[in-house]
Amino acid sequence: MEQMIYLYIFAIAILITIFISMLKHPQNNIFAEKLYLRIVLFSMMMLVIDIAHEYLSGIEGLWNAVLIRVLSVLIYAFPTVIAVIWFIYSYFLIHREKPKNSLYFHLYLIPMIINIILSLGSLIWPFYFDIAQNNIYQRGQIYFLSIVLQYFYMLAPIFMVLKNRSRLRSDKLYPLVFFTVPPMIGGLIQAFNYGLLLIWPMLAFSIFVGYIFIQSKLISIDYLTGVMNKGAFENHIDNIVYLDKQEKILSVTLMDLDGLKVINDNYGHLEGDKVLKAFAELLVKSFKRNDYIARIGGDEFVVIKYIRTTSEIENCLLELKNNINSLNSSGVFPASISYSSGYDVYDINEHLSIKDLIARVDKIMYETKSLKKNTR
User: Fold this and answer.
1) Burial, 28: exposed, middle or buried (Cβ in 10 Å; 0-12, 13-18, 19+)?
2) For a Cys-Cys bond, which of 125, 275, 338, 361 suits 258, CB 3.0-4.6 Å?
3) How does pLDDT run across 93-125, given as a tens digit for each residue?
């Protein structure tokens, strides 16, 4: 028990540090940050509840009898609540929007509701737990159903992330998949080793990893489109390595949406935002997942890509063109989406800086844009 207390104190200290850090460095108060902050707070609460529950079990007294029952309900009810918040968080990072208020999402919430009802019902009937004489906690008759429901919510985000892995860079993909693995391992060990408390410290570890690899990087992400923002891009090019170990060539591709102002003026800025978001999603889909994609202006995007031949860029641009044609054919937007682009590769013999290369590509892109206007 004493070793468990030390482990719990350490886990709480980690979560408090993360909580303070998030308050001191707010990331534009975005939706994802609010969700992550809730996960941190609820996890801290559960660590305190879990260790208090373990300490109070077996201590006689009326108030202890009431308190241990309340804590038992929270211990069983809250894991699915936290897991649902994580699911919504993962969904937002993938789709850059809140989950739709659909029948599918309502069905997804049913196991959580059942779990909460059974947790509360255990106060009357020993579904999940029973408090025997002398306030001794015991597992209930269908204790393992709570484990099944919890693991459903732990596995669902993993499947969702893997299904949409083409939308995510590896620096977000792997941490999102990893997040629920430690608490699942801790939960299994705890389920078969009564009295060994591991699930919440393991969740604290996942939160720590997630904060380092995901949450702390959201400040570099363009809120609307989900690709990197201008500040992150400028920092990236200041620290860029021109040639990697495979001797690939660094290339820069710039793209500018045509007629976005017309869409904003005729159909409203909300429609224009939807166009920007759709274009960014098609960029991620058309280029490789680990290519560096950023929004560096209102309607301007850049891709940093390491290639062996320029045909790799041309193939990506062709795929982008086909994807945009498919989107235009679907009639999702009242006006067709089009763009102008330019690309070039870094030549170490020219002694250019990356910024000089970007300026040259920018000129190529606007020459293409002007040519399109003149041929209309």
Assistant:
1) exposed
2) 338
3) 888 778 888 888 999 999 999 999 999 999 999
